[in-house]
Amino acid sequence: MASDQSSMTDSFEGMATAWIESSTAVSKNMAQMYSNIAAANRELWSQTMAPADSPSRESGDDSIAYSKSSWTTVQSVDTVAELEVGDEVVFRKELTDSDVHAFANISGDTNRLHLDDEFASDTRFGRRIVHGTLASGLISSALARLPGMIVYLSQDLDFERPVDIGTTVEATVRVAETLDGDRYRLDTTVQTEDGTTVIDGEAIVLIDTPPAPETDADADASTTE
Amino acid sequence: MASDQSSMTDSFEGMATAWIESSTAVSKNMAQMYSNIAAANRELWSQTMAPADSPSRESGDDSIAYSKSSWTTVQSVDTVAELEVGDEVVFRKELTDSDVHAFANISGDTNRLHLDDEFASDTRFGRRIVHGTLASGLISSALARLPGMIVYLSQDLDFERPVDIGTTVEATVRVAETLDGDRYRLDTTVQTEDGTTVIDGEAIVLIDTPPAPETDADADASTTE
């Protein structure tokens, strides 16, 4: 792993130094960047660890590590054996400004359309919008909540409308066809809460049997089935 | 914006409280989560603000807000007027463990295949792998570095091989066809450094004239053209 092992204190000092050194050259962009990163960092901690939105294990699916109380999942089916055409999972989440800044940092997609209000105001959209790929990530999040261990084989995406920052969107994945080799074709859409489709497309996934649950999970399962 | 306005100190206190309250119930998952988030947070600061990898404006393209010294971009063309079939942009970046955890948090895709070593060791991959959607984000990052203001219209993706965490991958977008309405069809691939294709597909983009640069950018342009 190439991660820098410097302490948080060192990072703050390095940040302050970098901030001062660069302030004359690119002060405006760095100022925006600084406040963006600070806000993203603050929200990362508060979103993740605040008692009202603590991550927790989802009870029904051992393939999911954790969820948050502000995320919504609706599943029509619980086991791979029962999965058939028409079954679906809906996953709903807000796409926040800090999500957009974090995505720019992890993907390298620093398109100013997503990060710079002044630049974005002069584009055809007239405002900053969410990265299409970030919004499409909710499709993968919904797929992951199908029963079994999901392997993503392909995805076609039509980006039909821009997604405003701060919008709650929901991804729906619906089994359209069962294919050979434990594969399934699914219709995949992302919609805003008023039902407007922002992304349309389809996915092919392979569904493996999930690894055997651990002992305590086994005990849980024996009481519910 | 739905962001929590609590101070960093409050977040740390809230985190400590949540940590203690939940430790008996789901201690193992929370412990992994806690260390993951702490590591991701540390790296977010150090990656973004360390002097060796300070973000900076890319000189050649006003549609990009900033870049980092560890990111590599190679462009065959500088202006929309010159853009033709065969032109390409290559964008290269490491996909780190903290990138994977950050993507899980912002997309909601907490598939244990990406987050849980023990779970992943029993899957067909035998190890944790990078989210396909995160790796595909580098295609969007490369597209954003084409000249002009890029609007993402569609993307087809075949996830051909898993991407190991900590791998440096490069996305290549190459103009395959010019279409009417300022649209272009591009071949899009993501490869590891040894040339193995991990994602293959194609994109359709619309390229608008970028907003007029600001006054200081105008001055820069006049000295270089």
Automatic annotation (TrEMBL), chains A, B:
Gene Ontology biological-process entries: fatty acid biosynthetic process
GO MF, one example: 3-hydroxyacyl-CoA dehydratase activity
Organism of provenance: Haloquadratum walsbyi (strain DSM 16790 / HBSQ001)
Domain MaoC-like: 86-184
UniProt xrefs under Pfam families: MaoC_dehydratas
Keywords, alphabetical: Lyase
PANTHER family: HYDROXYACYL-THIOESTER DEHYDRATASE TYPE 2, MITOCHONDRIAL (PTHR43437:SF3), HYDROXYACYL-THIOESTER DEHYDRATASE TYPE 2, MITOCHONDRIAL-RELATED (PTHR43437)
Protein name per its UniProtKB record: (R)-specific enoyl-CoA hydratase
Entry keyword Transit peptide: no
E.C. number: 4.2.1.119
InterPro entries per UniProt: HotDog_dom_sf, MaoC-like_dom, UPF0336/Enoyl-CoA_hydratase
